[in-house]
Specification:
heterotrimer; A alpha+beta (212); B mainly alpha (132); C mainly alpha (225); A: 212 residues; alpha+beta; SH3 type barrels; 2 domains; 8 helices; 6 strands; C: 225 residues; mainly alpha; Nitrile Hydratase, Chain A; two-stranded parallel sheet; 11% strand
Chain lengths: 212, 132, 225
């Protein structure tokens, strides 16, 4: 879906106004620290994937998504996932139904991470140097193809192997697809005045098509 | 699909035989007004509950509990007229679970509980839910 | 549109101290709605046993005290002083930084892109806030903000200028939009005037912002005026 989160190339947001690096605290309020830890800890119950979690934040009225601060969107996402996955009712019915991590488990899980690289089960359709077009899509569910590259032509600069495909992962199906990195010239995306600038975007095979 | 399929209304017969039937009815209307589900979703859930039959629906202990909680005895197994609001409750329970209703409510209540705990705690003392 | 939370969301302490002095003292002013919602969520999850307090503490401790930009600065300074390491880093960053112990969440797959005389790299995540946690810690507010996510891809020179960074027109600006689980780290140019500097001296020049690509590394001795 191309909701409020799909921000690349949008205008009207003003300047960046960064806080100086040496002065910015890691969290700006105690509630941010708490929600950060809660999102990570509940994620460790293994009841949803990172893409389901992203999709839960994206599924908001775009005006709400943009009005909220970033951690507020994390809170909205977690509230939604708890409801939809019915976690409270499930643990009330069966106290043993989740493996709830303690401090040692949590540290182990953070160090282990969650790699998305899978063994290849198909041959890649494309290779470095190929000129390709990003398919146009108006997809209701989660996807990781930004609107601003849809319909644009780019060049494959890297093939990263088979990675978990987010569009399906967000619906609970863990399937893989070949992942490529494509270079798009600034002039292709933003017009002829955008010279000596380019954008590199990671795109899965189903997002891409041959130029006809 | 009709909004209330197979609603058993005969001439001069009271619409609700028991108070809990009226309560269940108004609960569904209220939840729809809150936007919890659409009438299409409701019709589908109710049609399914009727299709499964009173036996399956009646065996659902959550449905039983809701029926008791609403202050009345559930209708006996029998024809569609007797068990109509049993199906109604089964459909309601199904939708409530599907929509995560209970959890959302629990969180909303807890937000309110914390707000009240703050208001009930003298300034400078630690705020705890138990202060509420 | 996007203001930093420090201005938008006062924390519990400041809202209490500014709001409550006018009232009598038989109650405590409730904090903002969002603070109440987080409190409600945390108390519910703890009470039901869905999360454990010590796990929450361990998570916070990890990102407040263990993982941060000093990891990335170590990698960059080593690359500046050790050519074989730099080559390995550019060829296979994931394995090369894993050898230094930098592994984990939001750093599972890593690519390092090198700034040169002709190329300036910049990293963004237009769709959310993907960021190499294992090397840089948690992202700053501006990295997650709408203006940066919207404009880094379309007008990178203007965005860089707002950070005080001027990139000459002959340089190709390459913007890396982190749409997959591949994370990108910029290897900044080694500053002039650092000949013979030790790895730890160099490390002090490597800022977080230089590894995102919005700034250059701090200048070496001869350039300090």
């Amino acid at each position: 879906m191309n909701g409020g989160h799909d921000l690349g190339g949008r205008q009207g947001f003003g300047t960046v106004n960064a806080e100086p690096e040496s002065e910015e605290p890691l969290f700006h309020a105690e509630w941010e620290r708490r929600i950060f830890a809660l999102v990570l800890a509940t994620g460790m119950l293994g009841q949803w994937s990172i893409d389901e979690s992203r999709h839960a934040r994206e599924r908001q009225n775009p005006a709400d998504y943009l009005r909220h601060s970033y951690y507020e969107n994390w809170l909205v996402g977690l509230e939604k996932l708890l409801e939809e996955k019915d976690l409270v009712a499930r643990i009330e019915q069966d106290a043993q139904c989740f493996r709830v991590p303690d401090a040692a488990d949590a540290r182990k899980i953070l160090r282990k991470g969650d790699p998305t690289l899978l063994p290849d089960s198909t041959q890649p359709r494309f290779r470095s140097g190929d000129r390709l077009r990003v398919a146009k899509r108006q997809q209701a569910g989660h996807t990781r193809v930004p609107t601003y590259v849809q319909g644009a032509n780019g060049t494959v600069v890297n093939h990263y192997g088979t990675h978990i495909y987010p569009d399906q992962n967000a619906t609970g199906q863990r399937a893989g697809a070949h992942l490529y990195c494509l270079r798009f010239e600034g002039s292709e995306l933003w017009g002829s005045e955008s010279f000596s600038q380019s954008v590199y975007v990671d795109l899965w095979e189903p997002y891409l098509e041959e130029i006809r | 699909m009709s909004l209330f399929p197979d609603l058993p209304i005969e001439n001069n017969e009271p619409v609700f035989k028991e108070p809990w039937e009226a309560q269940a009815f108004s609960l569904v209307i209220a939840l729809h007004e809150k936007g919890v589900f659409s009438w299409d979703e409701w019709s589908e859930a109710l049609a399914k509950a009727i299709h499964w039959g009173p036996h399956q629906a009646g065996e659902n202990d959550v449905v039983q509990r809701v029926g008791e909680g609403l202050g009345g005895r559930m209708g006996e197994k029998g024809n569609i007229g007797d068990s109509y609001y049993q199906h109604w409750l089964a459909a309601l329970e199904h939708l409530a679970v599907a929509k995560g209703l209970s959890e959302a409510d629990e969180l909303a209540q807890r937000v309110q509980a914390w707000r009240e705990a703050y208001l009930a705690t003298p300034h400078g003392q630690p705020v705890e839910l138990a202060n509420n | 549109m996007t203001v930093s939370p420090s201005r938008k969301q006062p924390d519990a302490e400041s809202s209490l101290s500014t709001m409550s002095h006018e009232h009598d003292h038989d109650h405590t002013d409730p904090p903002s709605d969002i603070e109440l919602r987080v409190k409600a969520l945390e108390s519910l999850l703890l009470e039901k046993g869905l999360v454990k307090q010590d796990a929450l503490n361990a998570i916070i401790e990890t990102y407040e005290h263990q993982v941060g930009p000093k990891n990335g600065a170590h990698v960059v300074a080593k690359a500046w002083s050790d050519l074989p390491f730099k080559q390995a880093l550019l060829e296979n960053a994931t394995a090369t930084v894993a050898d230094l112990g930098y592994v984990g969440r939001q750093g599972e797959h890593l690519t390092v892109v090198e700034n040169t005389l002709d190329i300036h790299n910049l990293v963004v995540c237009t769709l959310c806030s993907c960021y190499p946690w294992t090397l840089l810690g948690l992202p700053p507010v501006w990295y997650k903000s709408a203006p940066y996510r919207a404009r880094a891809v379309s007008e990178p020179r203007a965005v860089l200028y707002e950070f005080g960074t001027v990139v000459p027109e002959h340089k190709d600006i390459r913007v890396w939009d982190s749409t997959s689980e591949m994370r990108y780290l910029v290897l900044p140019e080694r500053p002039a005037g650092t000949k013979g500097w030790s790895e730890s001296q160099l490390q002090a020049l490597v800022t977080r912002n230089s590894m995102i690509g919005v700034e250059l590394a701090r200048p070496g001795a001869e350039e300090v005026k």
